Amino acid sequence: MDASMVFLQLAIILVAARAASTIAARFGAPSVIGELVAGIILGPSLLGWLEPTELIRLLAEIGIILLLFEVGVDTDLSRLAKSGWRSASVAVGGFFVPFALGFGVSRYVFGQELLLAMFIGGTLTATSIGVTVRILRDVGRQDSREGQIVLGAAVIDDVLGVLLLAFLYEFAQTGDLSITNVGRLSLLVGLFFVLAPVLAKVLSALISRFAVNDESTGVVATLVVALVLLFAWAAHASGAPELLGGFAAGLALSRRFFLPFGAALGRDPNFADRVQREMRPIVSLFTPIFFVTVGLSLDLREVDWASAFVWLFSISLTIVAILGKIAGGFMLRREHWLMKFAVGMAMVPRGEVGLIFAELGRVAGIFDGPTYAAIVLVIAYTTLFSPFWIKMFYRIYGDQQELR
């Protein structure tokens, strides 16, 4: 593609994202809705002006990595650790229940083949951590108790989703599963989560010392972006999603991160503030590209709107997709039902993670046209309408003591 056309596409995406998010805010909707709708309007679903090219997808990937970096910087690690068992229970419940329901409905109600039903169930396990975090931020709940539970659960959910995706892909290719490959991938992902924040903290301390002696404009942002991209690469190399590398780097740069050793790597609140201040414009530039790209990836013209199967199948899967994630929230046994419901609702959006599953199934020849269209509809339903449900929920119950 000609470079000038790339410049034009990016200009359209950025202006459309800003205009659409402003309009959404005026109507009381989260800004993420405006950006998603902008992608749907500009993409193949309506106008067909843009398509998610490899370059746009790459910039979108950088956007979600930087968004998760910012989330990591803002995360209170002690609170995240305290919600660990709660996050784990929500993630496990919100992973296995949608998988079982999706598999069961596909296999035993609609008579789909075994592998196809497994892929459909796998698609329903997804949670879009990017969309979820943005929704919570739009309603001012990202630092709340349920926000920390959801963040931890979404991270665990992503890891489980990657492992399941690897298992299903291997099963699709060979018809069998290798315990050796499964164990190796699990070990690499585990090692990454143990070592990455520690190593990132060491590197961030070096950046801090270098930055003290260099007041050049942009030096901190340049080095921090390099650190984030390095850890995104390391996450991919270990078998984990790239965006979790950005999250690990953000945790290490958080003012609340600490190591049980190495006093020389002590926290520097002033440096943490400088990182946030200099990184915010970069994050704000790239993040809307990601959400517009999610909208561009939804080709609603592929849906056979006259097909009874598409409607019945997609509605059935949407119901179990929503109920499965809400069931995950109700794994919090000692919490009030409002907290359980809030956590479950926040885990519903499938977004780009669901699209990855769907696209893999389509490319591998597992999803036929009607099934793929139904899956796309499920992803669209859960991604586009979740912000409205969540905002309405907090408008009604946000002041309740049980959510404080």
Q: How much helicity do the residues have?
A: over 70%
Distance between the termini: 51 Å
Task: Report on the biggest sheet.
Answer: none
Return the string of H and E elements. Answer: HHHHHHHHHHHHHHHH
Strand composition percent: under 5%
Contiguous low-pLDDT stretches (5 residues minimum) are 260-266
Throw out a few tags for this protein:
mainly alpha, 76% helix, 404 residues, globular
Give a structural overview.
The chain is mainly α. The chain contains 16 helices and no strands. The longest helix is centred in the middle third of the chain and has 34 residues. It starts with a helix and ends in a 7-residue tail after the last helix. 49% of the residues are buried. About 2% of the residues have low confidence.
